[in-house]
Amino acid sequence: MGNYVNSKDTGLRGVYVANTGISMIDETAGKLFYRGYLISTLTKYSTYEETAYLLMHGKLPVREELERFSSDLKSERKIPSEVLKFMMQIPKESPPMDVLQSTISILAHYDPDIYDQSKEAHYKQSIRIISKIPTVIAAWDRIRKNMRIVEPTDNLSHTENFLYMLFGQRAPANIEKCFEVAMIAHAEHSFNASTFAARIVASTNAHVYASIVAAIGALSGDLHGGACYQVMKNLKEIGSPDKVERWVIDKLANNKKISGMGHAVYKTVDPRVKILDKCIRLLTENIEDYKYYQMIKLIEKYTRREVKKLRGVEIYPNVDLYSAVLYNLIGVDCDLYPALFALSRSVGWCTHIIEQKYPDPPLKPVLYRPLADYKGLYYGPDGGKYIPIDKRRG
């Protein structure tokens, strides 16, 4: 456990706010652990359901436990017809993350355990949310395209079923495998902005849905989950590999951030980059000239060169640079990328919410309430004297 320190105007970087047993980041070595297991090990050998069980229960399941867990997820995939009718009334140009946030809030009204504050009820709510988020995302993508909604099936895994609902048919095996790897790699990442938002709301004793709605809102920003979407927008703006170098130079010369480069925690390459890079190479092995993969490699090369030249520091790629290209290869619309992030991260959010409310060992509940260093006038512009509106000067 680190020391608690004062920190102002730094986004709480370097400040320890709570204990956790869910995941750990070795920022110097570039390693990510879920419950003590390296992410590279889990993406190689595990499945999303097994990894979700590990996160939620603190151990890898035996076969019977995994089968029961997977069955629980499958049984909660459908969303009420009334909720689907609500979604059909939403303007079709609405951003997917806004739709997801609104719909999760509506789903709270249909949860029979919504007022139960027990740990068991929170677990049940979590299972429902994790199961229904893929259904909501896939349904919205088809609604906005005037396509028939595809009902979830209980014959496919969590990630396979999502792709089936999204595309209306089974995806190729290599697509399904790479998508599952990406979902495992995004499932959890310690106290990032959206997870912290979820824990803050949970600290007020709000229910799981309220905490998840807050997390989705935090994830939607382009400095967090929206960065992946921004990467693809940048690639389309640049247009071709031969224009990357000039684009990078111009961006940095104007003090603009380059999405997909740099990380708030890692001091080296994000470990998830190597994992997704393998997936991209697998999906492009029969494509002679896939320009977007070439372009992100050039963005990485020229950004590192220019930042070193301008600022004298090293900068490394993060997961967003590679996930954007991977999702493009899978065939997902780029404005849906942040929603895919929410799909995978939902299990991490739910696990943190439960840990926040029911820490082990048990602790007295703590409401998050940081301090702010006030820099305004002590008595206001008029010395604190209230002047009637008709006598005030503009």
How many structural domains does the protein architecture include? 2
N-to-C CA distance: 53 Å
Structural class designation = mainly alpha
**Sheet with the most strands?**
3 strands, antiparallel
Tell me the strand order in the biggest sheet: 1-2-3
Unreliable stretches covering 5 or more consecutive residues: 1-5
**What name does the CATH topology of the largest domain carry?**
Citrate Synthase, domain 1
Q: What general outline do the C-alpha atoms trace?
A: globular
* Total beta-strand segments: 3
CATH architecture of the largest domain: Orthogonal Bundle
How many separate helices?
Answer: 16
Percent helix, as a range, is 40-55%
**Gyration radius, in Å:** 22 Å
CATH superfamily of the largest domain: Citrate Synthase, domain 1
Estimate what percentage of residues fall within beta strands. under 5%
Q: State the order of secondary-structure elements, H for helix, E for strand.
A: EEEHHHHHHHHHHHHHHHH
What is the CATH class designation of the largest domain? Mainly Alpha
Mean pLDDT: 94
